[in-house]
Automatic annotation (TrEMBL), chain A:
NCBIfam families for the chain: acolac_lg, PRK09107.1
Protein name according to UniProt: Acetolactate synthase
Top class in the EC scheme: transferase
Family the UniProt entry places it in: Belongs to the TPP enzyme family.
Every Thiamine pyrophosphate enzyme N-terminal TPP-binding domain range: 5-121
Known pathway: Amino-acid biosynthesis; L-valine biosynthesis; L-valine from pyruvate: step 1/4; Amino-acid biosynthesis; L-isoleucine biosynthesis; L-isoleucine from 2-oxobutanoate: step 1/4
Cofactor(s) listed in the protein's UniProt record: thiamine diphosphate; Mg(2+)
Transmembrane intervals: none
Record flagged with keyword Transferase: yes
UniProt key word Endoplasmic reticulum: no
EC number: 2.2.1.6
InterPro entries hit by this protein: Acetolactate_synth_lsu (IPR012846), AHAS_TPP (IPR039368), DHS-like_NAD/FAD-binding_dom (IPR029035), THDP-binding (IPR029061), Thiamin_PyroP_enz_cen_dom (IPR012000), Thiamin_PyroP_enz_TPP-bd_dom (IPR012001), TPP_enz (IPR045229), TPP_enzyme_TPP-bd (IPR011766)
Lineage: Bacteria, Pseudomonadati, Pseudomonadota, Alphaproteobacteria, Hyphomicrobiales
TrEMBL record, chain B:
UniProt-recorded name of the protein: Acetolactate synthase small subunit
Keyword Transferase tagged: yes
Catalytic activity: 2 pyruvate + H(+) = (2S)-2-acetolactate + CO2
Subunit-structure text: Dimer of large and small chains.
C-alpha cells in the first residue's frame, strides 16, 4: 500500500520499517525537515551527540554490541565532513552503518552554496557505497537498499545524501517487498568442494592452528557458537585478532590469546610453526603478519572470508573459501562429523606439548609494584571485579588499548568494541554511549588513555543527558604512551611532543559535566575504588594514575617476524638497548 | 617487472607483469566512473586506457573497457576489488578468455605542404585511414586499428606535420560465439 508523504517523512518511515530504535545525530539547516519529521513520532529515538564524529562512533558501538546496523543523521557541509573519520573507521572495521547527510537543494548543487560540500565525492573512498538522491521517486528504494548494502556481504557504512528540496517534496512511499539491491548479491554459502578439501587438510594436520577475526563476530552469535563447536571437535589451538576477541572464550584451555604485534608468545609462535592455518574471518592485516616474507613459513593455509578481495591480497592461501563465516562453519562442522574425522592424535599431542612450553614462558607476566599502579595490574583488577557482570568494553587507541586486549578476558562476542583498522583515538567514549543505549542495564566501560580521551570528551555531556552510566577508566600515564614507546624503539628516546602537558583535573572535569570523578594512585586502594565506580549508577571518569614508563609487551617490532618477538623481560635478559632492536628498514614502517 | 604489494619497502617477491584488458559491466548511475577511476588511483593500479559508454539504454547498463598492467596477483586483486563495488555486475578479463579482438579509433590532424603533404597522403592510404577533412594545408584522418597500429600511424605522421591527436582508447570483445 502506498502512502503520500514528504521526503523527510519517508526517511523516518523507512527507519521505522527497518526496525530502527535509535539514531545518533546533530541538526543543521540542511536536515531541518527530517528533524521536524522526527518531532512528530516516538518510535525512532534521536540521540543528540556533541560532535558528528561522536555520532558515527556511537552508532558503531551500538552496532557492534547489538548486531544491528547503526544509524546516523547529520547536516550538510561541516556536519558531513565531521562524520568522515567515523565513516573511515567503520569502513576499516566492517561495521554496518547507514549515515544520512543533508545536502543543499538540488538546484544549488555545484554552486558553492552555503554549507555545500561534495559529500558523495568525499565519502566515496570511506564508505561501502553512497547515494545522492535527486528525485523523490528514488528515495524509498534507496533508503531500504542502503540497509541491505550496509548489512549484507562484508558489512560497511553507507551514506545517503539527501538534498533539502527532496526532503520537502511529496511523493508516494511504499515499503519495497524486499530491500535487496537489484544486482548486488554477495556469496554467503562457501564452495562445498573447497570446504571438503579444507576438512581433509585439517584432518591430516600435525601442527594446526585456528586464526580467527572480526568476520566471526560480524557473522553473528551463531557463528561464534559454531566456531566453539568446531574448535572443540578438532582439539586444535585457537588464536584471534584484536577484532575477533570474544568469539572464542578466553577462559578455555584451547585459547592461546590474541596474536600479532602485541599478541602472546604462544599465539605468534604457533602461527610461525604451524603446518595448517585455518583463517576464519580475518584478513592478514599487517599488525598480524609482521614481516610478510617470513610469515608462517611452513603452513598450508585455508582462508574463509566473505570478501573475495581479502583472499590472496597480501598472503597467498591454498584453499580459499568465499562465504559467510556462519554458513561455512556450519558446513565444516557437519563434514567433520560426517566423515567421523579425527585429528592426528599423536602429532596433535606433540604440538600441544610444544605450545605448553611456549605458554610456560608466561609472556604476559609483569613485575607488580606496591608503590605505583602497573597498568597491566589495573586491567587485571578491572576484569576480576567486573567479570561476573554483563560487561561491555570499549577502548581508545594506544598502550591502554593493547593492555585491555591482553589482560581483559572476553568470553562472549559483541562485548569488545575497539578501533582496530583505523586506530582512531576518540573512538571509545562515544562507542560506550552507543553500547550503553543498546544495553541499558549492562556495565559499559571505556578503557582510555589520558590523551585519547580528550579527543571526544564532549560526549560526556551526551552520556549525562541520556542518563547513561558509562564508566571512563583512564590509564593515565601522562604520555601518549604508544608514541613514547615507539620513540624509544626508533628515535633514541627523544620524546618529541609525546608528553601529555597541561592535563585537566579529570575528577573536576567529571564533576563539571555532572558526573562522578574518582582518582586512584595507589595499588592498595584500587579494588575499593573500582568497586565504587561500578556501584554508582551515573557516568564516571576514573583517573587511574599508573606507572609512566611502562611499555607494552610482547611486541613484534616493525619489520620483524613472529619468532623475533620482544618480551618484557627481553631487555633485562640480553642487556640489549631498546633503541637498537629495529633496523633501518623497519624504521620506515608504521 | 612489477613488485607484489607488500607492507615492506623491499620487494619480497618479484613477478612478471602483463598487459590485461578488462571488460566491466556496470549500472550506469552517477559517479560510477569516479568509483572505478578512484579505485585504481587509490590502490595504486595503472590505467593505460579506459573506454566507457552506455551499451544497454533501457537497463542503464554501461560497459567499461580498461587496459591495465600488473602481475597475476595484482590483476586478481583489481578484479576482486572491482567486483566489490556495489554497481559493478561483472568483470571479465578478456585477455584470459583467449585472444580478444581489440580496436581503437584515432583522429589525426596533419598540417603541411609539398613533400610532407604527399607523404602524409601516402601513409594514410597505406594504413587504410579515412580522410574526414581536408584543406589546402591540412588533413584530418581517421584510423581504426589495434593499439600498436594506431601508435605506429601516429609516430609516422609526426614526421610529416602532425599537430593534434584524439584517441578513443580500446574497445574489446572476446572471439567466438559466446556472449558475455
Ligand atoms: C586521531 C589519532 N591521532 C593520532 C594517533 C596516533 N597515536 C596512536 S596512540 C597515540 C597516543 C595515545 O595516547 P593515550 O591516549 O594517552 O594512550 P596510551 O598509549 O598512553 O595508553 C597516538 C597519538 C591516532 N591513533 N589517532
Ligand atoms: Mg597515555
Amino acid at each position: 500500500m502506498s502512502e503520500m508523504m514528504t521526503g523527510a517523512e519517508m526517511v523516518i518511515r523507512a527507519l521505522q520499517d527497518q526496525g530502527v530504535d535509535h539514531i545518533f545525530g546533530y541538526p543543521g539547516g540542511a536536515v531541518l525537515p527530517i528533524y521536524d519529521a522526527l518531532f512528530h513520532q516516538e518510535k525512532v529515538r534521536h540521540v543528540l551527540v556533541r560532535h558528528e564524529q561522536g555520532a558515527v562512533h556511537a552508532a558503531e558501538g551500538y552496532a557492534r554490541s547489538s548486531g544491528k546496523p547503526g544509524v546516523v543523521l547529520v547536516t550538510s557541509g561541516p556536519g558531513a565532513t565531521n562524520a568522515i573519520t567515523g565513516l573511515a573507521d567503520a569502513m576499516m572495521d566492517s561495521i554496518p552503518l547507514v549515515c544520512i547527510t543533508g545536502q543543499v537543494p538540488t538546484h544549488l548543487i555545484g554552486t558553492d552554496a552555503f554549507q555545500e560540500c561534495d559529500t558523495v565525492g568525499i565519502t566515496r573512498h570511506c564508505t561501502k557505497h553512497n547515494y545522492l538522491v535527486k528525485s523523490i521517486e528514488d528515495l524509498p528504494r534507496v533508503m531500504h537498499e542502503a540497509f541491505y548494502v550496509a548489512q549484507n556481504g562484508r558489512p560497511g557504512p553507507v551514506v545517503v545524501d539527501l538534498p533539502k528540496d527532496i526532503q520537502f517534496k511529496t511523493g508516494s512511499y511504499v515499503r519495497p517487498l524486499s530491500n535487496q539491491h537489484k544486482t548486488y548479491r554477495p556469496t554467503v554459502k562457501g564452495d562445498i568442494e573447497h570446504i571438503r578439501a579444507a576438512i581433509e587438510l585439517m584432518a591430516n594436520a600435525k601442527r594446526p592452528v585456528f586464526y580467527t577475526g572480526g568476520g566471526v563476530v560480524n557473522s553473528g552469535p551463531h557463528a561464534a557458537t559454531l566456531l566453539r563447536e568446531l574448535v572443540r571437535l578438532t582439539g586444535f589451538p585457537i588464536t584471534s585478532t584484536l577484532m575477533g576477541l570474544g568469539a572464542y572464550p578466553a577462559s578455555d584451555k584451547q585459547w592461546l590469546g590474541m596474536l600479532g604485534m602485541h599478541g602472546t608468545y604462544e599465539a605468534n609462535l604457533a602461527m610461525h610453526e604451524c603446518d595448517v592455518m585455518i583463517n576464519i574471518g580475518a584478513r592478514f592485516d599487517d599488525r598480524i603478519t609482521g614481516r610478510l616474507d617470513a610469515f608462517s613459513p611452513f603452513s598450508k593455509r585455508i582462508h574463509v572470508d566473505i570478501d573475495p578481495s581479502s583472499i590472496n591480497k597480501t598472503v597467498k592461501v591454498d584453499i580459499p573459501i568465499v562465504g559467510d563465516c556462519a554458513h561455512v562453519l556450519e558446513d565444516m562442522v557437519r563434514l567433520w562429523r560426517q566423515g567421523a574425522h579425527q585429528a592426528e592424535k599423536v602429532a596433535l599431542k606433540d604440538w600441544w606439548g610444544k605450545i605448553e612450553g611456549w605458554r610456560a614462558r608466561n609472556c604476559l607476566g609483569f613485575r607488580n609494584s606496591t608503590e605505583t599502579i602497573k597498568p597491566q595490574y589495573a586491567i587485571q583488577r578491572l576484569y576480576e571485579l567486573t567479570k561476573d557482570r554483563e560487561t561491555y568494553i570499549t577502548t581508545e587507541v594506544g598502550q591502554h588499548q593493547m593492555w585491555a586486549a591482553q589482560y581483559f578476558r572476553f568470553e562472549e562476542p559483541n562485548r569488545w568494541m575497539t578501533s582496530g583498522g583505523h586506530g582512531t583515538m576518540g573512538y571509545g567514549l562515544p562507542a560506550a554511549v552507543g553500547a550503553q543505549l543498546a544495553h541499558p542495564n549492562a556495565l559499559v566501560i571505556d578503557i582510555a588513555g589520558e590523551a585519547s580521551i580528550q579527543m571526544m570528551l564532549q560526549e560526556m555531556s551526551t552520556a549525562l543527558q541520556y542518563n547513561l552510566p558509562i564508566k571512563v577508566f583512564i590509564l593515565n600515564n601522562e604520555y601518549m604512551g604508544m608514541v613514547r614507546q615507539w620513540q624509544e624503539l626508533l628515535h633514541g628516546g627523544r620524546y618529541s611532543q609525546s608528553y601529555s602537558e597541561s592535563l585537566p583535573d579529570f575528577v573536576k572535569l567529571a564533576e563539571a559535566y555532572g558526573g562522578v570523578g574518582i582518582r586512584c594512585d595507589n595499588p592498595g586502594d584500587l579494588d575499593a575504588k573500582i568497586l565504587e565506580m561500578i556501584n554508582v549508577n551515573r557516568p564516571v571518569i576514573f583517573d587511574c594514575l599508573v606507572d609512566k614508563t611502562e611499555n607494552c609487551f610482547p611486541m613484534i617490532p616493525s619489520g620483524k617476524a613472529h619468532n623475533e618477538m620482544l618480551l618484557n623481560d627481553y631487555l633485562g635478559e640480553t642487556g640489549a638497548d631498546i633503541g637498537s632492536v629495529i633496523d633501518e628498514k623497519g624504521k620506515m614502517l608504521v | 617487472m612489477l613488485q607484489m604489494k607488500t607492507h615492506y619497502p623491499d620487494a619480497t617477491r618479484v613477478e612478471p607483469s602483463h598487459r590485461r584488458t578488462l571488460a566491466i559491466i556496470v549500472d550506469n548511475e552517477p559517479g560510477v566512473l569516479a568509483r572505478i577511476a578512484g579505485l585504481f588511483s587509490g590502490r595504486g593500479y595503472n590505467i593505460e586506457s579506459l573506454t566507457v559508454t552506455e551499451t544497454e539504454h533501457e537497463a542503464h547498463i554501461s560497459r567499461i573497457t580498461i587496459v591495465t598492467t600488473g602481475t597475476d596477483s595484482i590483476i586478481q586483486q583489481i578484479k576482486s576489488q572491482l567486483e566489490r563495488l556495489v554497481p559493478v555486475h561483472r568483470v571479465v578479463d578478456l585477455t584470459l578468455t583467449g585472444e580478444a579482438v581489440e580496436r581503437e579509433l584515432c583522429l589525426v590532424k596533419v598540417v603541411g605542404k609539398g613533400d610532407h603533404r604527399v607523404e602524409a597522403m601516402r601513409l594514410a592510404s597505406a594504413f587504410g585511414a579515412r580522410t574526414l577533412d581536408a584543406t589546402l594545408t591540412s588533413f584530418v584522418y581517421e584510423l581504426t586499428g589495434t593499439t600498436d597500429e594506431v601508435e605506429r600511424f601516429i609516430k609516422l605522421m609526426t614526421a610529416v606535420g602532425l599537430v593534434e591527436v584524439s584517441r578513443t582508447g580500446v574497445a574489446a570483445m572476446a572471439r567466438g560465439a559466446e556472449g558475455m
